[in-house]
Fold:
Amino acid sequence: MTKQAETTIHDIAKYLNISASTVSRALNDNPLISEATRKKIRKVANEMGYRPNTLAANFRTKRTNTIGVIVPLINRHFFSSVISGIEDIAYSQGYTVSISQSNDNFQKETKIAKTMFNNRVDGVIVSIGMETKSFEHLELFLERKIPLVFFDRAVDEINAHKIVVDDFGGAYRVTKHLIEQGAKKIAHIGGPTNLKIYEDRKQGFLKAMKDAGLKTEKKLIIHNSLRHDDGVDAIRKLMSKNQKIDAIFCANDTTALSAIVYLKELGIKIPEDILVMGFSNEPFSKVTTPSISTVKQPGFLMGQKAAELLIHQINNKKADIKYQTLVMPTELLIRESSQKNVLNLH
Amino acid sequence: MTKQAETTIHDIAKYLNISASTVSRALNDNPLISEATRKKIRKVANEMGYRPNTLAANFRTKRTNTIGVIVPLINRHFFSSVISGIEDIAYSQGYTVSISQSNDNFQKETKIAKTMFNNRVDGVIVSIGMETKSFEHLELFLERKIPLVFFDRAVDEINAHKIVVDDFGGAYRVTKHLIEQGAKKIAHIGGPTNLKIYEDRKQGFLKAMKDAGLKTEKKLIIHNSLRHDDGVDAIRKLMSKNQKIDAIFCANDTTALSAIVYLKELGIKIPEDILVMGFSNEPFSKVTTPSISTVKQPGFLMGQKAAELLIHQINNKKADIKYQTLVMPTELLIRESSQKNVLNLH
DNA sequence: TTTAATTATGCAATCGATTGCATTTTAGTT
DNA sequence: AACTAAAATGCAATCGATTGCATAATTAAA
Structure:
């Protein structure tokens, strides 16, 4: 066995003394071909070690069976869960998933989008980065009718399927819970408000405060990038104002954790002195001390839904599509960091 | 502007009254083309909204500029870090990364490998699943000279570049540390030993025990899949034997954590009564109570190295390659769960 | 049986970029 | 100006599967 060239459908055709079209159709289970020849062809193809040249087929059909996924960061539990969900569905439907991360960098996001566009992905699933405020790079896809689905960090201005969570409702319930625990002076550490999810969380917070007849002071609301250090900085700012805060609602768990750690260093007890809540249910939140109350987002499910919608759209390109926005329910996870009277929940 | 067909190099050529070959070469920065025409072509291409048909180019050149990545689970910090590293390098070199997860399922791993093979990825980076004991699906790549690089869970029997961590050394130091803390009767919760990494961790453990003149009892070594529940089960088994264990070395942090939680429920204090250590440095390990001592693996860096080696191999296919095994150093992270006299480390 | 309808197969063009080889153009030398 | 070397461009085949349309083979109906 020396290095032999790849077997093509023509080789099979020649061997069987039939035409390449018949071979092609047989291997694609085209009903035009009779059961008998189909079997015969299959057998020979197998024996000859035939492997379909996907490149040729892609070229001819102008399809790649590839779904592009653009996320801010793979290395975050929520996002990797979503990706798992996408991968789960895509894979079972014969699609390949191509993933790139923007690192919340606008330039990189743009470049990724262009690359995927040129690579002729059949569709894209996107969660935009923190810096993203303009959307030409995404409109590219729409112009060429390439299906696009947003998840989590969606863009209001673009008409497309969207899978989001009920950020407003989640934040509202978080805040309500804090109020029920007796908090009156509640601070909020939020993300950049050009992202709808953070704006919604803030609004949910404000609404709950208002409904409870509580005043919100502007200086108790801080916006940043929600990274680890941002949590510490935010707490420094809040504390420097010498306010008597009795609760903090952080827009993600990362800042909630760093806030807790820092507050503990300051000798402030959580939850006795200040209640803290996060958002997103990172895996660590359950196991910290105190465990962090948070909002659970169904990442895997969201990924599945996103992939389903996308693939459906790919398969029904001509049809007029009614774009839907799936709002996934969130689940309030009340743990130690937000309860004055901690019960043993086991 | 109605829906116009895609611009091709032929359109550009016709417009400029030159040949398509020249256009092709110009756009690919082929030095055969003069600076003047190159510029002219670039300009027109831009104006005509040309986008290269990657599918056609791939077909013609038999390359996809795609790297396939097969991992057990995306949704785990170590793996997603490695993927980030791969993505980082690959992206900067013009490669696209296609990721699939095996879920530690052999069948799925096989299917993924075949799909990637048929999709003509230019190379693959693999970390095998827990069930994987035979390797035909990977040998496929070798037979066709498609570069393959392993990371972490490598296969001894296959000759390829490998990026692994010093599991033996890491485990040795873990065990030595436990012994230095006064532990004599040390249990080990390990993974399936068909995976070299787990075998190595076990061996490192055994060697350290031996070097310290300590005896290891077989019944204190338990192998399982290292998932959350496995940790609990393992502890149950260990405890049922009514042994006076004074330390447990778990082959990952997940089981270390579940072991700690379960032991605490039993009223056993960590680290006062039993020392516990994990492996891999999951993000939660730092923030649990007690924080979990563990071994840090440079995931991101490993991903980068893997991608670098792979791409180098792709670019030098003809050359005889000396396969290397990069053993990345591990870092012992001593935290609360393994120290009898906890110092404030801040 | 002959004809019509149905089913199965074949022909040949096509997708768009790449590339070995041939040819033309330009620059350099004498 | 004539000629050679070097640089720039063009020709045309090619990659392998798909598919609209034509044709052949088979079956059913008359």
